[in-house]
Write a structure and sequence with these properties.
This protein is an alpha+beta fold. It contains three helices and nine strands. It is globular and about 60 Å long.
């Protein structure tokens, strides 16, 4: 009996020792996963000025992204390494119809969100919506001067619905930072 009890006690001590080694002595130490997902390499937060045909004279665009002009009202900002394209619409408005255009764009953004939880940041006449679980449209924005233009858009991704959050979140944060920089009313 004493041998069996000693063996059980030794096994329990080994399990406790092994589990404390996995979590760290102080409980705050990081524990590596058995299978880790690769962290994406993010573009540097450096920007260039991109002229616009109407509305604001220019916007700040990440220097590593490319801009595809589809028409004077529609352009895309492409992030090849991320698999993300930010579809942008630049609408000329008059003070009398600006609020209707803004309401239309806000309705579109709400429909894109569906049931996903989102963080919504508003500053003056700018709105940034970040919905990390809406992997196909995680970042949306709207900026206007309420007199001559409405600039709106959405980041469209090719990310799989089961993409690991620790690989996707840094990219979504980087896109949100770039869009915030882009819609700032000051020059880059």
């Amino acid at each position: 009996m004493k041998t069996a009890g000693t063996a059980i006690a030794a096994m329990m001590l080994a399990l406790v020792g092994a589990s404390s080694a996995c979590t760290g002595a102080d409980g705050d130490a990081a524990v590596p996963r058995m299978r880790a997902w690769p962290r994406p390499v993010l573009y540097p937060a450096t920007y260039r000025t991109e002229p616009l045909p109407l509305g604001p004279d220019s916007i700040a665009v990440n220097a590593s992204a490319t801009v595809e002009c589809i028409s004077p009202e529609w352009f895309n900002i492409v992030y090849p390494a991320y698999g993300i394209t930010v579809n942008c619409t630049l609408t000329a408005v008059r003070p009398s119809d600006a609020s209707a255009v803004v309401a239309n764009r806000m309705e579109r953004m709400a429909r894109n969100l569906g049931d996903h939880r989102a963080d919504i940041a508003r500053s003056g006449e700018m709105t940034l919506i970040v919905a990390p679980t809406a992997l196909h449209t995680p970042v949306q924005f709207l900026a206007t001067d309420s007199a001559t233009y409405v600039l709106s858009g959405v980041a469209v991704t090719s990310l799989a619905a089961n993409a690991p959050a620790d690989s996707v979140a840094p990219v979504i944060d980087a896109i949100a930072l770039d869009i915030t920089r882009m819609i700032q009313p000051t020059s880059p």
